[in-house]
Amino acid sequence: MGFKLLVLPPDDSGSHFGDDWPGRLSKAVPGIDVTVCDSVGEAMEVIGEADAAFGNIVPELFERAHNLRWISCPWAGPPAGYYHQPLIDSDVVVTNMREIYSDHIGAHIMSFVLTFARGLHVYLPRQMRGEWRPGYETVHLPESRALVVGVGGIGAEAARLCSEFGITVVGVDSRREKAPPGVADLRRPDALDDLLPTADFVIVTVPETPATQGMFRAEQFRRMKSSGFFINIGRGATVVLDDLAAALNDREIAGAALDVFEQEPLPSGHPLWSAPGMIITPHVAATGPYTMERRFEVLLENCVRFNEGRPLINIVDKTNWF
Question: Which of 63, 164, 219, 264 does the annotation list as catalytic?
Answer without folding.
Answer: 264
